[in-house]
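2024-03-11 09:14:02 DEBUG pipeline.ingest accepted 1 chain
2024-03-11 09:14:02 DEBUG pipeline.ingest length=258
2024-03-11 09:14:03 DEBUG pipeline.predict start
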Amino acid sequence: MIIPSPELLLLPERFPRSSRYDPAWLLSLDMGPNPLWQLEELWDDLALQPGQRVLDLGPGRGATSVFLAREAGVAVDALDLWITVEEAAETYRAMGVEDLVTPRQGDIRTADLPEQGYDAIVSLDAWEYFGTDVYFLRRLVTALKPGGVLGFATPSLRDDPYLVEPLPLLAETAGFEVLTWHPAEWWAKHTALTGGLIDVKAWVPTDSLDLWQRWDEAVGGDSPMRKVVADYQALGGRPPALGLVHVVGRKPYAARKS
């Protein structure tokens, strides 16, 4: 068993914004690889402005919604399937962002969303639960304003799991979910085609797997993913054989009528 090492989450040169947050606080909200690092990786492409409205899909216990409100001054609708409104609200009150963040509980696949209500939609380490559905994104982007941005991060294998079998330990640990861990090229095409988005780009940071390992060591304890990460690190290569793909795209403005 590894002893938790919260100090490993402080990487001011790589993630200056995320490093301003108390590592112990972030670990207390743990539901997967560091969501603030994922969000900060997308930050420049999101180009958020104070006063905008953002939908945060699958924020879990709320770290990303706090980050959005504090760092960008945006109003956030935080929609999660598992975390209750009451539990999430406690986090937002404690962090002083209750006036900017509205917690909601529900399933994004059936939730009522305002048409063209959001300047941005983000999702960190939750997209694998719904984003591969070819019908999902077309409905979701109706909630984006023209010119609005979608940004998400999700686990990704360099070799598509439908074409190259994942390592046995990963398949055993993640189960059928591993079949949603597509490579960056797949996500770029899927997002553009099924969502009708433009300026789509998808990338896996070269240090993505190392960061995943660092997060796992910071959490400590007995992690079933620790050996998986080590096995994929041994494969080498760039992009890493396992990591988190980051995807951004924009909703086009309606064509002008002649």
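2024-03-11 09:14:41 DEBUG pipeline.report The beta strands are 53-57, 75-80, 101-105, 118-124, 144-157, 198-203, 242-250.
2024-03-11 09:14:41 DEBUG pipeline.predict end
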